[in-house]
Amino acid sequence: MKAKVYLETSIVSYYSSRPSRDIITAARQQVTREWWEENRGQFDIYISALVLEEAKGGDPVAAEKRLAALNGITHFGNIG
């Protein structure tokens, strides 16, 4: 049985955004991308409906990338 992991919006944002010029943000993006590509298959991943709604917001191109990354991930709960 796989361990369960809940992802917050910042994880999918770091994973799907274009590389930052800020060294701290760039490092977080790199670590997140490495985890996503190398380790996420070891876990059952879940997101809340709120994470899904947040991922839809903002720049439409960025939102599309976030939603593509979340495609197939189990979400639970309702908003409001």
Description:
The structure is a single chain. Helix 1 packs across helix 2 (23-38). It contains 4 helices and 3 strands, in the order βααβααβ. By secondary structure, the protein is an alpha/beta fold. It has a 3-stranded parallel sheet with strand order 1-2-3. It has helices at residues 9-16, 23-38, 49-56, 60-70; strands spanning 3-6, 43-48, 74-76.
Write a concise keyword list for the protein shown above.
80 residues; alpha/beta; 3 strands; 16% strand
Structural class: alpha/beta
Q: How far apart are the termini?
A: 32 Å
Beta-strand fraction estimate: 15-25%
Query: If you compute it from the alpha carbons, what radius of gyration comes out, rounded to the nearest whole angstrom?
Result: 13 Å
**Helix content range of the residues, please?**
40-55%
Order of helices and strands: EHHEHHE
What's this entry about, in short?
The chain is 54% helix and 16% strand.
Secondary structure blueprint with pairings:
Blueprint: E1 3-6, H1 9-16, H2 23-38, E2 43-48, H3 49-56, H4 60-70, E3 74-76
Parallel strand pairs: 1-2, 2-3
